[in-house]
Task: structure prediction
Amino acid sequence: MAGTAVRGRLSWQTVTVGPVTDETAKVRTLRLEVPDWPGHRAGQHVDIRLTADDGYQAERAYSIASAPGEPLAITVERLDDGEVSPYLTEEARTGDQLEVRGPIGGYFVWEPGSDSGGPLLLAAGGSGVVPLRAIVRERSRAGSSVPVRLLYSSRSWEDVIYSSELDLPPGGVKVIYTLTRTQPPAWHGYARRVDEQMLTEVAWPASERPLAYVCGPTNFVESVAAGLVGLGYPPGRVKTERFGATGQ
Amino acid sequence: MTEASSLDDYALDGNAIGGLLIALFGTEMTTAVATCGSCGAVRQVAELPVYMPGLGIVVRCRSCQSVLMVFTGVRQVTCVDLMGLASLG
Result:
């Protein structure tokens, strides 16, 4: 297939930052007021582009945190050496303007009835919980009763995003935490990285034809996806989205 | 998670370039099926390892690591090299 040069067709649009919510010390949710937002699917993302005064541009992809039908929101974790996330988590204020394009993605998406009916296994490493939270909210919004287990790996309890929401999950949704670095006193949950033993205890048996969504840093996704395939999940039933190394 | 221990820890996947691919191809491409021109492995674009070292974007085969696609941007124009693919669709 020969090389070619093409001009962009998906357009950037200027949006206004709406209400901002601090989720943890390093993580923030920003509502984005988009004129004529076409709507999105649970699990999709948007690209955000920042332009410096000298014209230098940086763009990054951020998962959409809200369910379809809810106002567009992204949840962003600050990476200390990042080009975009420090601005979004520390500088951006309600009323500021950003450039956004989206919604984007057709692979890492969930819609009620779009799979063959098995239970859902959601596995999140750190801020990989963001698109999975959109899936859980969409399940509720759509009135789906598909059973869900969300295995959520964080460094500490203070790093858990959406903790107040996930502490009171809707019926049929079970949240299992593992805290890999520090644990609160009297913690009875898992306290190590996700491993084969943990997946054996938490994941739906492959015989139930589960559908899995795994999102997080690359090494988390590789190890969880391989573990699920080892438990008999067909690779095509394990959907993955990688953030790259985050240094966490 | 610990610090990245190898180059592969920095690899993203095809989800990350979904926006670029819509801009270039005019349609959602992360569910498109890519066939490696070297080993014949077949994968959805979303599942392919993607490297963004800064100057451009390199998409490799998950089976044999051959370079499948390269995207480089110069002054609002993106140059696309799909030479590593046997097919995409």
